[in-house]
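Morning F.,

Quick status update on the modeling queue. The single chain you submitted on Monday has been processed. Sequence for confirmation:
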Amino acid sequence: MNYYKVRLECAPCSEDITDLLAAFLADLGYESFEPDGSGLTAYVQAVEFSEENLREMLKDFPMDTTVSFSYEFVESQNWNEEWEKHYFQPIVIAGECVVHSSFHKDIPEARYDILIDPKMAFGTGHHATTSQMMRYVLDFDEIEGKAVIDMGTGTGILAILCKMRGAGRVTGIEIDPGAFENAVENAALNSQSVEFICGDASALSDLEPADIFLANINRNVITADIAGYAEKIKSGGILLLSGFYSSDIPIVMEAAEPLGFTLDKATEEGDHWAALRLRKI
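Structure tokens below.
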């Protein structure tokens, strides 16, 4: 796939600013982000890129900073090589799960060993949203044989971890065709049987309700689709959510509580990224 590489320079710049920029860009379809001390580099599929939409987003950006941008067209390439050069290093989550790629050496040992070749899909465990979701999955005492749905599966990392922990039927749904293909590849690399569907929340209509439902997406998508999630969670089932800030928790709960969800646990990691464990009454 061809992409646009968009560079955003921020004055002043902080982690709060680059994190919020990434969240807003994700709403515009951007898939990968590389923050640094002066701004953010982001990637979006060429068919999704709109300079007008980017300008509109920046015009309404709520933080006190001046943002300038430039962009360049990037032809399809070996994205694994780009990750190897610039970002992805092995990571150990909660002392129990190591995530690495096929090009890594000197890999730490852990109970669960997940091989991820991410290409342009989101989810290597490095971002605070993914790592918190992984910790929640690792915390489950009773996951054996449980049915799981992973909405917005990205690389498939959460679905793969659920399967490694003994879950029964595991289904991952991903709207982006490239990420969908990557998730299928990653499940095969880990010899895990996961059913992946390329589609949006409408794909839930053909699925049986799950015991555990995961959605690491963003606040706007979650609040728009959470009624559909609720229909596909068994009574007493668990909904794990991330992809938003701690300040967004009241907004998410306002959408969740009328659907019969109660808050079991809330965590925060990194620069105010939140994750929630909800239970359906």
